[in-house]
Amino acid sequence: MALPYLWLLLFFVVPFIIVLKISFSDMDLAIPPYKPLLEWVGQNSLAIKVNFENYAFLFTDSLYLNAFANSIKVAFLSTLLCLIIGYPMAYGIARARPALRNILLLLVILPFWTSLLLRVYAWIGLLKANGVINNVLMSLGIIHEPLTMLYTPFAMYVGIVYSYLPFLILPLYANLEKMDWQLLEAAQDLGCRPWQAFFKITLPLSRNGILAGSMLVFIPAVGEFVIPALLGGPNALMIGRVLWDEFFSNRAWPVASAVAILLLILLVPFMMWYQSVQARETAGAR
Amino acid sequence: MNYRSSIFVLTCIGLGFAFLYIPILSMVVFSFNASRLVTVWDSANSPTLKWYASLLHNEEILDAAWVSVKVAVINATGSVILGTLAGFGLARFRQFRGRFTLNAMTTAPLVMPEVITGLSLLLLFVALEQLIGWPAGRGITTMTIGHMTFSMAYVTVIVNSRLVSFDTALEEAAMDLGARPLKVFFVITLPIIFPAILSGWLLAFTLSWDDLVISSFTSGPGSSTLPMVVFSKVRLGVSPEINVLATITLGVVTTMIVAVSLWMARRAKIDKASAG
User: pTM for the full model?
Assistant: First the structure.
């Protein structure tokens, strides 16, 4: 037990302390490209130089704040879209015959096991100007000019919703599967219409499943890099991409670290919320 | 209980699965297309296997695939060991110092954006190299450490949920009969949680095989993984060879998943029969 504990401490917790440290460092034209925080000045005095410039820079250049705001917007709307598509699917699977249920569940899990990169790549083939969707629509005579879909926000939303949908369906299904459907029958016997019964009983009872699934989509989607980079085009301003470019293209390690710290501060409340929802779910299952 | 679903729910399920599977199937279909234009069907020369042949002669992709296999196998094995220990600790010992931290540390990597994990690991490796000279440079070792850190979190969750749901009376009975704790673990606990460990291994393998972001941060020169090569190719546009790669991946994954779930279904039936 001590082994995984120490492992996670060294390779998961300590790195964040280093990121925090570097986010307060000056940039330097050296390898690695930052200056130490602690410096010996003179004989016996150690000086700590804490530099808030990287953070000040993030708040003055509108690029970063826009990227943060845009990432939250994209992640939120994608989560909502996943819910709209995923809820009926999870519901339908939970109410199917047990034998069919396992097959349907397997079909939801299968794409999750194949490479994310390759599934995102599939959308390039579908969405591009001479891609599958345009070819089909043109041959049917619905459109005469190919639609511009690839490298637009639309393509990015499609990519995110498509990739994260299984993450929403699985926890939601796990929750709905435990539901006592007799409650619904009782409500209908007492004169509720099916829709009313759904909104008054099923939806409130599946609250934890909805929250858990939504967090599993929202939190990683805020920092998503691959999908905006491949489908979103040059204007898709997402914070994960900004961090990547600061690090790999500009070699601005301190700025990239400051971006990471701000992103983390933004996401930690959601992560804690997720953990408390999970704890309630497992406690309820026992 | 009645299993009839409304037309509305059935339509949603149908459309949902179409959304999930049309992109995947389109890659399979176009992997047999002769045209270099990938999405324009060349009916005169298709279907063809020529891109399959050209993939098998693509040195860059084969080398990268070999790096990916090595990282994925070491990662999966290491994550299973660490993840099983963590999952066991969390499930069997309700109270110990650091339980809360261990729980938080195994949940956080599941949702942590990869760019943050990747960046922080790289900065750790750079700082360690300055301090103690290890790891000297970056490559397969650093990549594997990075992958294990997030894969073990998944294994922990799987093993933990299996352990929580099984009857501890078996373990207690074995101990009453004089078995030492370590023996109980290997003779009773391990065989019972074996399906969870197997799923954990396969999941850890897949996560590593598929990872782009953490690999990019923690890899060094000459150790490009398959996703890194695919990513740089895909950035330049579609390529028929990538369709082939996707089709092969899909074939392998489908076979594995179907085989494992059939095996588990049979096992569950045997368990039930012997219990009843």
Answer: 0.88
